[in-house]
Specification:
The chain is an alpha/beta fold and 163 residues long. Helix content is 49%, strand content 18%. The protein is built from six helices and five strands; from the N terminus they run αβαβαβαβαβα.
Amino acid sequence: MTEDGTEKARRDRVFLVVVDDSPERAVALRYACLRAAKGGGRVTLLRVVEPVEQSEWAGIGSMMQEERREEAEALLAGLAAQVKELTGGMPMLVIREGRMADELLALLEEDPRISILVLATSAGGKGPGPLITALTGRLAGKMTVPMTIVPGEMSEAELDRVT
């Protein structure tokens, strides 16, 4: 690969982080940011908003869905500031509505720029977590990119050392 091609490949590498409500999300995010900053690449943040249960009053359901989307936008905006601080660049932000695993797999299929999925395990010995369990089990054959699984209890110093 030429020097220009190598540099382009580094810039095109995209680390995808799933933004859920787990405390381990911070570990996955920091790992992805450090890898992107030190090795070249960008970060994409994915937030999946679960659909509101159908109710008799569609207006209420619509308002609830809109509130969830606004909360997702606010959360991603805050995390984008962290990504910019660690990487020097703004992340790509993606909000989807649906089931987490389904939307994640759909995004991986649709966006060829994504080259690595970064997830962190549950802290406290509670197992890897439901998404990692699904993606390494029944959905493993549908994965289209490598997955990096970071121990959810890693400290900032440990993350700095391994990246």
